[in-house]
Amino acid sequence: MVIDFSRLNSAPPLTGSTRSNANQEAGSATQAAPAKNPEQTSASAPSGESVHLSQEAQQLQKISDSLRDQPAVDKNRVAELKQAIAEGSYKVDSNRVASKLLNMEAQR
Prior knowledge:
Belongs to the FlgM family. The chain is an all-alpha fold. Helix content is 59%, strand content 0%. The chain contains five helices and no strands. The two termini are 27 Å apart.
């Protein structure tokens, strides 16, 4: 099923919808009422809600933060490989490549 989010706000209102009629009728009533200050609303709202993260979630967050600080590419290793390829001293270990490929397939 495909949902076209670009058309959500541009869709014509449903005919016979009580919501659109109620909004039009309530519009005149809300215009007469004074507007509330957002600061007053947030100050008077109760703030008894809290969030508690599990030990695993906290550990995952720490790991995620430490990985974000790591460089995406080991520039020293890349430079070593480029030099080895340029000198002709880089040798491909076909057995190692094959075993890594098999391990990747086994994990799927």
